[in-house]
Amino acid sequence: MSNTMEKQNILRTIDLYVNSFEKVLYEVDDIFLKGMENHNLVGDDIEKYKFWEWTQGVGLFGFWKLYQHTQDKRYLKTLNEYYDRQLKIGLPSKNVNTTAPLLAMSFLAEYEKREDYMEICKEWAEWMITSFPRTKEGGFQHLTSDTLNEQELWDDTLFMAVLFLANMGRILDKSEYKEEAKYQFLLHIKYLTDRKTGLWFHGFTFNGNHNFAEALWGRGNCWITAAIPEFIEMVECEESVKRFLTESLKSQVDALVKYQSADGMWHTLVDDKESYLEASATCGFAYGILKGVHLGLLGQEYVEYAKKAVAPILDYTDEEGILHQVSYGTPMGREDKDFYKNIELRPMPYGQALAILFMLEILKEEK
């Protein structure tokens, strides 16, 4: 396929993702809501969680990036309508996953000078500093809407919550927020990096000091591939911190290219060819690699690996703009790696968002 044809195909696919975005954003997650009936930690109105969770948060961030790229006011309208709708319903309790929608909101509040949005962002950022449940060594415990996860660090936390805190540090020029965000990245690297491969384990618990099933889970790893470049772009770091984060990213990416399948995808367990190929992780890896290259964190030689993922992701996108082969939300595999192989596949907002982010970054290569 020529570069011109590929660019046209990518632009068409992004349009398809846009057309399906609201449908996926407001699709009821019956499995999550059923679980919340018995495991709602705070006991507040479940309706508040219905469309305000990490799944929507990642999707909204992708849509904000789409607006930044296109300056199409329709996308701003979609974002504002979402946040205004949810504020009328009321926000749920504060935890890692319910913080995720605030990342896009913080950008929007800054861009549009929306004080109502900004006041909420300020409240949640301050909560993170003063009241966020902590593990030993001051890590952000992976508290969710339905699980305490006491003394546990998860790789998801950096993308879902720490990026928001970092962005608020940038917006408000609050060194306390920025320094806390840096510390969380460094601490998570300390406990979640697999020193044998450079990939990341899904989690670590201080209750026993182990990495659970030691799963090198795909999407969990992709949150890191995406989060490190986003963070470095967001917050000006000391040379030593930037170097440390960059080397961690490079170590991970060097492992990823070894495990990429022949068709350009990655498996849901990165190092296990018997696990299924998974689209959201593939998009996240390709996006993070390209963004790392474009920021000068990774060498140009890595671009080819991200480009290999374009064709299969386009193939997994149907004519309604729905990305398939996306694994559903995944709790911790505590004892058995095979747990990850049995997670069902279904379209999700984060799959759509990661695909948008990937395709937007690919377009920078096509100029």
Write the layout of secondary structure elements.
Elements lengths: L2 H23 L4 H10 L14 H17 L2 H17 L6 H4 L1 H12 L2 H16 L21 E3 L1 H17 L2 H18 L10 E3 L12 H17 L4 H21 L6 E2 L9 E2 H16 L8 H5 L2 H6 L22 H4 L7 H18 L1
Antiparallel strand pairs: 1-2, 3-4
Helix pairs in contact: 1-16, 3-4, 3-6, 3-16, 6-7, 6-8, 8-9, 8-10, 9-11, 10-11, 10-12, 12-16
3D architecture notes:
The chain has about 375 residues and is mainly alpha-helical. About 60% of the residues lie in helices and about 5% in strands. It has helices at about 5-25, 30-40, 55-70, 75-90, 95-100, 100-110, 115-130, 155-170, 175-190, 220-235, 240-260, 280-295, 305, 310-315, 340, 350-365; strands spanning about 150-155, 205, 265, 275-280. A two-stranded antiparallel sheet has the order 1-2. Helix 3 runs parallel beside helix 16 (about 350-365) and helix 10 (about 220-235) runs parallel beside helix 12 (about 280-295). The model has no long low-confidence stretch (mean pLDDT about 95).
Brief sketch in words of this structure:
This protein is an all-alpha fold and 367 residues long. Helix content is 60%, strand content 3%. The protein has 16 helices and 4 strands.
Average residue pLDDT: 95
> Uncertain regions: pLDDT < 50 for 5+ in a row?
none
Radius of gyration: 19 Å
Portion of residues within helices: 55-70%
Q: Give me the count of strands.
A: 4
